[in-house]
């Protein structure tokens, strides 16, 4: 049995020679994610960060992908930071609507018009980008309004309005840690992300019933994404980003990747030579 486990480990890693970043206990997970990504090389980016231990797993983690509507997390965080500093309020009226109602529409229903109203009130993409840079958040670019993005000729490799998977989980980690937002703002943002009504066939689809997920989806023609937080049974929380462009069934790929991440961190291997039984625990959930 041990010999079979060792051979299985060799086969997995020979199929994904570029892997080396994950800690030993999570290299099986990284290999599984790489296998999913290899079905569409360069078009699936994944990052998953254990917010307690700091352990990171990624595939094409430094590759820029369109953010699409996942940018709304950054816009919401910037607005809430402004509220904390007394420059704005959730009761402010913007185009006849409260900022709170616009925030709800933006994060729960992915309302593009509500997003652009908040973005314009903040001073436009340049001001949100400046806020990211002031907070040393590299790897994210906010260049256009949602209306401007949708009106432009589609180029899924355009670096404008993009993020790397690692940069996105870094933003999420900074939000969660209290580094960017105070506890009340953080709780408010996570409460709205927990109510996300879009993309039920993505990150949530294959996770065990009752798993707590706070997330935001993104969609463009030929592109699907989902980013946010997954809480494990022991209370540990993961910041995750799944970006998929091209491919026949992107939501399913994201669902499979999310389940692989969940299983991998739950099992949390601490040795590279896992038993065959342990390897099946990670790879068994498709």
Features:
five-stranded antiparallel β-sheet, alpha+beta, two-stranded antiparallel ribbon, about 45% helix, about 15% strand, about 290 residues, 11 helices, Beta-lactamase
Summarize the structure in words:
The chain is α+β, with helices and mostly antiparallel strands. It has one domain: Beta-lactamase, CATH 3.40.710.10. Helix content is 44%, strand content 16%. The protein contains eleven helices and nine strands. It has helices at 2-14, 27-37, 71-84, 99-108, 112-121, 125-134, 146-151, 165-177, 183-194, 250-267, 276-283, and strands at 44-50, 56-59, 65-66, 93-94, 97-98, 162-163, 213-220, 223-231, 237-245. The strands form three sheets. Strands 2-1-9-8-7 form a five-stranded antiparallel beta sheet, with helices on both faces. Strand 1 and strand 2 (56-59) form a beta hairpin. The longest helix is centred in the C-terminal third of the chain and has 18 residues, at 250-267.
């Amino acid at each position: 049995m041990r010999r079979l486990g060792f051979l299985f480990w060799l086969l997995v890693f020979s199929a994904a020679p570029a892997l080396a970043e994950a800690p030993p206990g999570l290299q099986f997970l990284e290999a599984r994610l790489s296998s999913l990504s290899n079905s569409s090389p360069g078009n699936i980016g994944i990052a998953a960060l254990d917010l307690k231990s700091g352990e990171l797993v990624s595939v094409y983690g430094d590759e820029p992908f369109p953010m699409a509507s996942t940018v709304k997390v950054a816009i919401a965080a910037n607005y809430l930071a402004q509220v904390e500093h007394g420059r704005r309020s959730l009761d402010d009226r913007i185009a006849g609507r409260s900022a709170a109602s616009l925030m709800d529409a933006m994060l729960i229903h992915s309302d593009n018009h509500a997003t652009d109203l908040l973005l314009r009130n903040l001073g436009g993409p340049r001001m949100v980008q400046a806020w990211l840079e002031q907070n040393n958040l590299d790897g994210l670019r906010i260049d256009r309004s949602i209306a401007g993005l949708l009106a432009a000729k589609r180029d899924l490799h355009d670096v404008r309005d993009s993020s790397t998977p690692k940069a996105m989980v870094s933003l999420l980690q900074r939000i969660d840690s209290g580094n960017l937002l105070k506890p009340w703002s953080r709780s408010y943002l996570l409460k709205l992300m927990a109510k996300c009504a879009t993309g039920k066939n993505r990150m949530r689809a294959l996770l065990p019933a009752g798993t707590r997920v706070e997330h935001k989806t993104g969609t463009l023609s030929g592109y699907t994404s989902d980013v946010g937080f997954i809480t494990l049974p022991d209370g540990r929380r993961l910041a995750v980003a799944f970006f998929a462009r091209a491919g026949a069934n992107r939501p399913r790929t994201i669902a499979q990747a999310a389940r692989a991440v969940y299983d991998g961190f739950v099992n949390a291997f601490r040795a590279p030579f896992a038993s065959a039984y342990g390897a099946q625990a990670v790879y068994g959930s498709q």
